[in-house]
Design goal:
The protein has 121 residues and is mostly beta strands. The chain is built from no helices and 11 strands. The radius of gyration is 13 Å and the shape is globular.
Length: 121
């Protein structure tokens, strides 16, 4: 079992920045792909970004390319999402997820509780 706890959400103005963190605990001796998802009110949860355990490969949804950066520090069992040039449409609850195999998809094995990001116009 892996437990994930997100932090770093908040209220920011359009064009501002936030950095989300996701701390993993439990069975972190295995290699996991780590991803960020988000869910806006009335919408389905959508994939945002993912990073391999090695950190050498990343993938982003088109809507955040060039603005968001996913990274990880395996020594701290933490994955980050640096979000720059935020837009009102980025407003959502952001979730961290982990899976030993899944790369791009929604059926990740482990999920955090989410952190709210609100971008005001």
């Amino acid at each position: 079992q892996v437990q994930l706890v997100e932090s770093g959400g908040g209220l920011v103005q359009t064009g501002g920045s936030l950095r989300l963190s996701c701390a993993a605990s439990g069975r972190t001796d295995s290699s996991y792909n780590m991803a960020w998802f988000r869910q806006a009110p009335g919408k389905e949860r959508e994939f945002v970004a993912v990073i391999r355990w090695s950190g050498l490969s990343t993938y982003y949804v088109d809507a955040v390319k060039g603005r968001f950066t996913i990274s990880r520090d395996n020594a701290k069992n933490t994955v980050y999402l640096q979000m720059n040039n935020l837009k009102p449409e980025d407003t959502a609850v952001y979730y961290c997820a982990a899976d030993p195999k899944l790369w791009i998809g929604v059926n990740y094995d482990y999920w955090g509780q989410g952190t709210q990001v609100t971008v005001s116009s």
